[in-house]
Design a protein that fits this description.
By secondary structure, this protein is α+β, with helices and mostly antiparallel strands. The chain has two domains: 248 residues, BirA Bifunctional Protein, domain 2, CATH 3.30.930; 96 residues, Anticodon-binding domain (Rossmann fold). The protein has 16 helices and 16 strands. The strands form three sheets. An eight-stranded mixed beta sheet has the order 1-5-6-11-10-9-7-8. A five-stranded mixed beta sheet has the order 13-12-14-15-16, with helices on both faces. A three-stranded antiparallel beta sheet has the order 2-4-3. A hairpin with a 5-residue loop joins strand 9 and strand 10. Helix 1 packs antiparallel against helix 6 and helix 6 runs parallel beside helix 10. The longest helix has 20 residues.
Length: 435
């Protein structure tokens, strides 16, 4: 007997009904993104390590503590993708997409990401991120439409009423100088109360203290100066423009100066969508904002850009917390039970033809069940109709299709019109069910 190997810590398997829920949620997000004019892109699961060091910042938690890095067989330093934006920005630059396609360029992605952090509720070392990026627009309308897309996804999943949109501006390099000086002075007076990481951040990048998750530091941050008192005229004008647009489309929001995001590349307007759980606590499911200088840092031209990411794992936990009713995976449209090998071969030919018509037809491939056991199996699979195929049915040239819910029977001729007749029967059944 072999030894049992478990999945690595911080990962999980997604099976059966959970997989159907994932497919449902991911399709909802994909459909909404396409509705807003976004096109899907795919990038490698690993990149050169310096891509993330250059984008997120060497001192960020993502780079300094959480990133999976390794040497390949040629001695190159590579990293598993910790987030989606940097890789997509790199791909856009490398492909020359900004000169090849009309601007703004609007893309979305669904990808696994990896961070080495303590596994806990809603947080895994392998997690799935849905994200969108917009390249080539500095208009406040682009910010607003991006938030509208995020809000639209939450509305489609019946979470909008329990979601709070928080917005802020982290300013640009010009207005940050005065702000950094102000918070340095403030946090220096609280130095003895800061966590070890924040004492280091005070010297290297004081703004990272604002995003610290340690409770004592979070309490200190509440009394810190607000960056909104320091932003320049251009940043203020853009921020107020976003607020005006959100007001125009009827999306409620809260201005929250504590929203700064955790990566160095953010500039200007940033936002989060927080879900209010049944226990009353808030969980950030979506976060994003502008990163107008990122593409230039990565070797491209100066290109205004923005986007957001949604943690799919957290989103699914929020759906469960809200007790949103996602239907179970649909069963086969029709299931064929057979009495012997010859009839089984005939059933295989039937399901082949029906599947060509996009009808979900199945049969028992275990091969050793009795007819009654096959029918029980069909019921467990949630089949809508079943039919028993035996010698008499083949000699008569007729099959009886029985509705598993109503027990109503329908007799169909086995011939050229059989598939069409099955399709019509399924359509009639759908019409009756919708009444």
């Amino acid at each position: 007997m072999g030894f049992f190997i478990k999945a690595p810590r911080g990962t999980r398997d997604i099976l059966l009904h959970d997989s159907y829920m994932w497919d449902f949620v991911l399709k909802t997000m994909e459909d909404q993104a396409k509705l807003f004019g976004f096109t899907r892109v795919r990038t490698p699961v690993f990149e050169c390590e310096e891509l993330y060091v250059g984008s997120s910042g060497a001192g960020s938690d993502v780079v300094s503590k959480e990133m999976y890095t390794f040497l390949d067989k040629s001695g190159r330093r590579l990293a598993l993708r910790p987030e989606g934006t940097a890789g997509v920005a790199r791909a856009v630059i490398q492909d020359g997409a900004l000169s090849r396609y009309p601007l703004p360029l609007k893309v979305f992605y669904i990808m696994p990401c990896y961070r080495y952090e303590k596994p806990q509720n809603c947080r895994y070392r392998e997690f799935t991120q849905f994200g969108v990026e917009v390249f080539g627009s500095d208009s406040c309308m682009a910010d607003t439409e991006t938030m509208m897309l995020a809000f639209s996804i939450f509305r489609e999943l019946c979470l909008a009423e329990k979601t709070v949109l928080k917005i802020n501006s982290v300013g640009c390099s010009r207005c940050r100088e005065g702000y950094i000086s102000a918070i340095k002075g403030y946090f220096s007076k609280k130095f003895s109360y800061l966590c070890d990481d924040c004492t280091t951040r005070l010297r290297s990048n004081p703004m990272r203290i604002l995003d610290c998750k340690v409770d004592t530091c979070k309490g200190i941050v509440k009394g810190a100066p607000s960056i909104l008192d320091f932003i320049c005229e251009d940043c203020a004008d853009h921020f107020y423009g976003v607020k005006d647009c959100l007001n125009a489309v009827g999306i409620d929001y809260v201005v929250d100066p504590s929203v700064v995001r955790g990566l160095d590349y953010y500039t200007g307007v940033v936002f989060e969508l927080d879900y209010r759980s049944s226990s009353g606590t808030f969980v950030t499911i979506c976060g994003g904002g502008r990163y107008d200088t990122l593409l230039e840092k990565l070797g491209g031209g100066m290109t205004p850009a923005l986007g957001f990411g949604i943690g799919v794992d957290r989103l699914l936990v929020s759906l469960e917390d809200s007790e949103i009713d996602i239907k179970k995976a649909p069963g086969p449209d029709i299931f064929f039970a057979y009495t012997d090998r010859q009839c089984a071969a005939f059933c295989l030919s039937l399901v082949k033809e029906l599947r060509l018509r996009k009808i979900c037809a199945q049969l028992d491939v275990k091969g050793d069940r009795s007819v009654s056991a096959q029918i029980k199996y069909a019921a467990k699979k949630g089949a809508r109709f079943f039919s028993v195929v035996g010698g008499n049915e083949l000699s008569d040239g007729k099959l009886i299709l029985k509705n598993m819910k109503t027990s109503q029977s329908f007799t169909l001729d086995i011939g050229d019109d059989f598939c069409d007749n099955v399709l019509n029967l399924l359509k009639r059944s759908d019409s009756i069910a919708s009444l």
